[in-house]
Amino acid sequence: MLERIRIVLIGTSHPGNIGATARAMHNMGLSDLALVAPRCAPLTAETVSRASGADHIVHSARRVERLEQAVGDATLVVGASARSRTLPWPMITPRALGERLPEELASPEARVALVLGREDSGLTNSELQRCHAHVHIPANPDFSSLNLAAAVQVLAYECRQAWLGQQETAAQVEAPPSQPLASHEELEHYFAHLERTLVAIGFHDPATPRQLMARLRRFTLRARPERMELNILRGILTATEQQVEHHE
Ligand code: SAH
Fold first, then answer.
1. Has this prediction a pTM greater than 0.85?
2. Which domains does the chain show, CATH number per domain?
């Protein structure tokens, strides 16, 4: 289970935080690290020093330019946020996230990505809106922003506790096989298709968006659609597009 949980760091500026993240991950048995557009050289002497023997995690980390490339195959994407944003999104605690993991990762194809933001500015609204849910560490409300690697430590700890709990109950009955959920990439293709169609039928005007796409995203992501369900919705969009062309 732990090998299918990925830590994704976006735009990190301090190599020491990358090293400390690797250490926090290895301490808790996580190994999959992705670095999205780091704003520093990820592997410096400081990285190695702060990793304290876990720098192999940084060596094997995937380095990509865009969030999509780091979470494309993930069936659950959770963004870690130090503060609440304008459009409320499903918000969970690290404990609740851990409790969800055994079921989320029951199918061998399932992948969970935990996305953390920049030291200075966190995650952007557009990055947060690409997540199924947000996780907030309920810290002191007057001083709620943790150091990046410390936030990774808290989340990784809850992942490990959930995994340990699952080991204890391993003898229990197997969960029924579930249908494969849509991946992040499949969802993004669907949202792009939906937006094109809504523009074509005159329902959506990108010049006055009024958060329409954000609200539709939140609604769809809350439903956790299966791949098959998304295929049905895309079929409806294709048929709608064909009708529009037919009447033009
Ligand atoms: N100053 C930034 C926070 C940067 S901390 C801001 O105001 O948004 C760097 C990252 O650590 C954040 O983007 C978030 O992913 C994570 N983080 C820090 N504190 C957190 C908290 N209390 N709950 C969840 N994630 C947190």
1. no
2. 2-174 (3.40.1280.10), 184-247 (1.10.8.590)
